[in-house]
Design brief:
The protein has a single domain, classed as Orthogonal Bundle (Transferase(Phosphotransferase), domain 1), CATH 1.10.510. The chain contains 7 helices and 9 strands; from the N terminus they run E-E-E-E-H-H-E-E-E-H-E-E-H-H-H-H. The strands form 2 sheets. The chain has a 6-stranded antiparallel beta sheet with strand order 1-2-3-4-6-5. A 3-stranded antiparallel beta sheet has the order 7-8-9. Helix 3 packs antiparallel against helix 6.
Amino acid sequence: MSEHLGPYRLLSRLGSGGFGEVHLALDPEGRTVAVKILHPHVAADGAAIARLAREVETMRLVDGPHVAEVLDSSLDVDRPYLVTRYVQGRPLSAVPVPVADLRLLATGLADALEAMHGAGVVHRDLKPANVMMSEGEPVVIDFGIASALDSLSVTASGAVVGTPGYLAPEVLEGRPAGPEADVFSTAATLAYAATGRQPYGQGPASAVAYRVVHHEPDLEGVPGWLAPLSGR
């Protein structure tokens, strides 16, 4: 028997991230949606949930073909959740991008940034895993969630919410994340798509973060037209 959460019928678990577990679900009209159920430690942080509730109304203003829009939310319940458009596809982190498609990827991500920033939303955790490739087009998921929840108690020790290697230097140094930080993350994501390599290498998070702040990215193999967008 399928589990229900509010008016949504949960069909299958799609995955889990730092803030919640994502399920494929059906809405009351029978349309497929993605339901993100926040982890218990997130749900227990009243201040973070209150902030997310305030931010959701802004997040719902974001609309466009290259973003997975927020459709609904229920945050004042035992199992708080967000509902977004379901994007059928695979994450950029798992899909090689032909050189011929890099322009399509770059323009799609630029369109997503314009939609988010135009509504006053900063993604804060843009990376290949948060870019779904659907019929050759990129769709950005999870926008605004990291930014809205960066007051979580799990960061009280000074840990940074996000993924080193794609986080902007100013964020790693503890400064606020603005639209410019998303531009940096997009550039790093494009460099990864062009080369198949992490632009700041691999290793412990602290080592990668140090390279972001103190070293130049590895852009060997990035096409010349894309290099200026990727930091060279």
